[in-house]
Amino acid sequence: MGGCASPLPYTPAEQPAGVRLAADYAVNAGRLRVEIDTGGYRLELAEILKADGSAVRAETIEHPGPRGGSGLGLGLGVGSVGRTGSVSIGTGIGLGTTVGGGSRVDGNTVAVFPLDQVGPGPWSLRVKVVGIQPVVIVLDPARRG
User: pTM for the full model?
Assistant: First the structure.
């Protein structure tokens, strides 16, 4: 798979306005694993369109973290020793979260399909991200470099 270091090789015939979408795939252990660059938008739908008109939805989708990230902070503080010999100690853990999931993400999304249901390539991947019209990206093994 392409990863974040290089652009993913498969793109829609026409990019939707306002975002650049791309994908790549790997076949492993009876699964079609598709990495999707959503241009930072949260993925709403990933499905493979079959020649008979039916669609196979992803069995799992691995979403990246929200834009801005969630963070984990750990703090430890030690107070002073008083005349009575008392010591103050404090600890704390902070978790940064996004309530409601947000619509922007950092990184690529991965969708996994059962290979026995989607059949051999080429595959027509329909993706829909928040606020953008659905597009089809053809994942064609014959075009692979």
Answer: 0.71
